[in-house]
Amino acid sequence: MSDRVLIFDTTLRDGEQSPGIALDSDDKVAIANQLAELGVDIIEAGFPISSDGDFAAVQRIAREVRGPIITGLARCGITEDIERAWEAVQDADRPRIHVFLATSAIHMEHKLRMTEEQVLDAVLDGVSLARSLCEDIEFSPEDGSRSDIDFMIRVCLTAVEAGATTINIPDTVGYGTPTDYGARIKRVVAEVKGDRADIVISTHCHNDLGLAVANALAAVENGARQVEVAVNGIGERAGNTALEEIVMALNTRADHYQVETGIDTTHLYPASRLVARLTGYPVQYNKAVVGRNAFAHESGIHQHGVLRERTTYEIMDPSAVGQDASKLVLGKHSGRAAFGDALKALDINLEDEDFESAFARFKELADRKGEIGEEGLLAIVHDQVDLSDAVHFLGWHATGRDNEAEATVTVERDGVKESFSASGDGMVHSIFAALRKAFELEARLLDYRVEPVSLGADAMAEVSVLVQLRERTFTGTGSSTDIVEASARSFTSALNKAARASAF
Question: What is the pTM of this model?
Answer without folding.
Answer: 0.70
